[in-house]
Design a protein that fits this description.
four-stranded mixed beta sheet, 22% helix, globular
Length: 110
């Protein structure tokens, strides 16, 4: 039995909203290819809006742009993660059609 690893090419986009030179909102989109599908999938990471700018549509705008870019990249799905206690974030994603699909397991490596 021989173990192998192969480096794959994936890439990402960083979305930001700035006001007066200050970043007030951000999101990361990673486009990932694997051998199971002929199209890549997308991973949304760290969608964040500064607290005093929330409830003004910035998160909605960011998420719309992220989904649009994932479609442009021909992704077959987009995954967004959120901590269990962030119920308001879960409602936000569900408004856009995201489904509660599973459990994320995590191991911190530092």
């Amino acid at each position: 039995m021989k173990f192998q690893s192969k480096k794959i090419k994936s890439f990402g986009y960083r979305f930001t909203i700035n006001e007066n030179g200050e970043e007030i909102a951000r999101a990361w989109l990673y486009v990932i290819k694997n051998d199971l599908h002929d199209r890549p999938y997308a991973l949304l990471e760290d969608l964040f809006v500064k607290e005093n700018y929330r409830r003004k549509g910035l998160g909605k705008s960011l998420l719309e742009k992220v989904i649009e870019k994932a479609k442009e990249e021909n992704c077959y799905k987009i995954i967004a993660t959120s901590r269990k206690k962030r119920k308001e974030v879960h409602k936000f994603y569900k408004k856009f059609g995201f489904k509660d699909y599973g459990i994320e397991f995590r191991m911190n490596l530092d």
